[in-house]
Amino acid sequence: TRETVERALTPKTTAIVAVHLFGNVAPIPELMDLGVPVLEDAAQAAGATLGDGNAGALGHAATFSFFPSKNLFCLGDGGAVTTNDEEIAARVKRLRFHGSEDKQTFVDVGYNSRLDELQAAALRVLLPELDGWNARRRAVAQAYADQGLGEAVTLPTPVDGADPVYHLYMARSERAAELTAELDRAGVEARSYYRVPVHLQPAMAPWGGDGLDLPGTAVAARENLALPMGPDLGMDAVAEVVAACREALVSS
User: Fold this and answer.
1) Please, are residues 231 and 158 in contact by the beta-carbon 8 Å criterion?
2) What is the pTM of this model?
3) How far apart are CA 108 and CA 177, in angstroms?
4) Sign, Cα dihedral of 101, 61, 164, 23
5) What is the 3-state secondary structure (H, E, C) of 22-60?
6) Strand pairing class (49-50; 79-82)
């Protein structure tokens, strides 16, 4: 929320990075007047919307991933940066090509990070399918709710005004670890993500590490549970997952 971000801002803050996690959409518009650039991590949210805007077009710039596990994917590694700022666009173009515009003068320390023609061709073929795939993901999410999954776990809640694309279907339960084990025994693939949150990773130790008090993050890391989700998941499979979750609660 805006209040959470405002409390974290300091004079050293150079940007706000908002993550559209699991296909939901962060409330970007309420952050745009805080005086620093707002960057979207839209890797999991291709095709998601918030009000009249699309994920990836709400902030000052955004990043997308086209890794094969994403809603819109290519044949290997690939990604894109979107922005309507000409200066940012020019710098991104330089950075993806060793920091140069002409192969002779290098004005930034850049990378060799261009989307190759094969991946671009695959994306051009697959992009028209994205809306249909996302619609089927939303239908699966609705089916989970309609078939009573909420009686066994806490269902994901979209941000107000958002239409998520359910890259992952993330439920929550105080017994997530037990449920995961029981579902695995029942043949239902489920897993949790980010059990060790970012601020507790070794690389973050210089910036606070375990000295930071983030109780909401701790609960989310402990309770999240990803259940089967995808455009090809049928209603019979949804019913199996719901039944397995109910049975797992009885067994665990």
Assistant:
1) no
2) 0.91
3) 46
4) positive
5) HHCCCCHHHHCCCCCCEEEECCCCCCCEECCEECCCCCC
6) unpaired
